[in-house]
Write a structure and sequence with these properties.
Length: about 475
């Protein structure tokens, strides 16, 4: 217990605390912060240890914050206002409760465990301040499970799974409580990690590489070309370091993103517009799946963001993607002379479906964000439909997608334009999205529900939660 409670080097604790503060309080991007703090670490093992501290603390921050407040009350302490000290306490408390939090049990500590921790607190190595030691001492005497039992279901889940209560309320309007809790648990689990394989001929080579590197994997039941990778420490880094990953034989891509590209159904020779392309992952996926120097136009309204995202693409991919600094809300005027076969509108959205990958969004999102993004999505979709009419794009195949649970960002938007589109049935085994036939349909009670697709982390191996619709505009 003492070894798990106190790492050999206290710098890991303080670095993790600073990283958590920058992400949750200062609003910094998770990937950039982890990259910077990882570069400051002296070894690869140190980089891993910092990441292993930061992500779980952010994921479980609501629960850790609750434990700290209850421990402070029990010890008759005041909570310090200093945010970095707060996150330092969170990191240490997570070390103490790690197994209980990750197992979801939160059972009380045994007398033997309390004794061992109490002895360790008397002379901690490395040195931890007295105030944090007092919080730990108070925390190990709490019966957190009993405290949470006294609360109503929404407040209990909000604390236990570190999700905002309004998010839980919204899910409960759509799903039975059993499913809601499974989704919350799935979003607290380690981020799922998928590898899309281009074709059957390369599957054996990829499988041999994974096996030789002791990376555990299994083929996805819904999309057999997608391999689900056990999220072992360093597995993603080892794959990224292989030159053929993301360029040749396989690509790191979430199952839901692969489903979006299945719905797009790009074939050789297609002209494709990726209307809301940032960060260009799906543009790269379109090229990678087909491996042909076709026409892919990736649009982004922000020049600096477009240049930055394009620069991060592998060189072999970048030269086949034409970046257009243009606003999807003014599609017709931006792309005169282009006749697309396919248009992807992967909309800017709340990102509520990506909370496992980006748990900091739980702290940043507000209920009002849903209405804001819903309005924006409606405007962009209307612009695309107007452009299709004005530019005489009669037979263009359009895919609309959002990484969101909320019907306001999915079914409601499509229902609003049903008189202007011919909706493609993505569940038709003979249709263009035939590989999606086994995926869940949309939320019930909407005109489009039976023909659209949703993905869920609890039903689709930990994938992100996406809404996907495909259609052709009416003439």
């Amino acid at each position: 217990m003492a070894r798990a409670l106190f790492p050999k080097d206290a710098r890991f604790l303080s670095r993790a605390a600073r990283a958590c503060k920058e992400i949750l309080v200062d609003g910094a991007q998770q990937d950039a912060v982890l990259s910077r703090f990882g570069d400051d670490a002296s070894t690869t093992d140190n980089r891993k240890q910092i990441a292993q501290l930061v992500i779980p603390v952010i994921k479980h921050h609501g629960l850790l914050n609750y434990i700290i407040h209850q421990a402070a009350r029990a010890m008759e302490m005041s909570i310090p206002n200093d945010k970095e000290r707060h996150f330092f306490s969170c990191v240490v408390i997570f070390h103490v409760f790690k197994n209980r939090i990750e197992n979801g049990s939160l059972t009380p500590f045994s007398d033997a465990e309390k004794k061992e921790i109490t002895l360790a607190l008397k002379n901690p190595r490395p040195r931890i301040d007295d105030e944090t030691c007092m919080l730990v001492s108070g925390a190990i005497h709490l019966d957190v499970h009993a405290l949470l039992r006294e609360k109503d279901v929404v407040e209990r889940w909000s604390i236990l799974h570190s999700h905002p209560s309004w998010f839980i309320d919204r899910l409960r309007r759509l799903l039975p409580d059993e499913r809601v809790e499974r989704i919350l648990q799935a979003q607290q689990a380690p981020e799922a990690f998928f590898l899309a394989v281009r074709d059957a001929s390369t599957l054996d080579r990829v499988a041999r590489f994974l096996a030789s590197n002791n990376i555990v994997f299994q083929r996805n039941k819904m999309l057999p070309s997608v391999l689900q990778i056990s999220n072992l420490t360093g597995a993603k880094r080892r794959l990224i370091e292989k030159k053929w990953i993301n360029v040749d034989h396989a690509m790191i891509q979430d199952l839901a993103s692969v489903a979006v590209l299945e719905a797009l159904n790009v074939v050789e020779g297609d002209v494709v517009i990726d209307a809301c392309a940032a960060p260009f992952q799906k543009s790269a996926g379109i090229w990678w799946r087909n491996a042909w120097p076709g026409t892919i136009i990736a649009m982004d309204a922000n020049f600096e963001r477009a240049a930055s995202n394009a620069a991060r693409l592998p060189a072999g991919v970048r030269r086949f993607i034409h970046v257009a600094v243009a606003d999807a809300a003014r599609l017709g005027s931006s792309l005169r002379g282009i006749v697309p076969d396919k248009i992807l509108i992967d909309m800017p959205c709340t990102g509520s479906g990506s909370l496992a990958a980006y748990p900091e969004l739980k702290a940043r999102q507000r209920a009002t964000d849903v209405a804001f993004f819903s309005r924006l999505q409606g405007q962009i979709l209307e612009s695309v439909l107007d452009a299709c009419i004005q530019m005489h794009w009669k037979d263009v195949h359009v895919v609309y997608s959002t990484c969101s649970y909320y019907p306001e960002e999915g079914e409601d938007i499509i229902d609003e334009v049903m008189d202007k589109i011919e909706l493609v049935d993505l569940h038709d085994p003979r249709g263009p999205g035939c590989r999606l036939a086994g995926f869940p349909a949309g939320w019930k009670g909407h005109a489009c529900s039976k023909k659209v697709v949703r993905t869920f982390p609890d039903l689709n191996d930990g994938s992100k939660a996406f809404f996907i619709a495909a259609f052709t505009p009416k003439a």
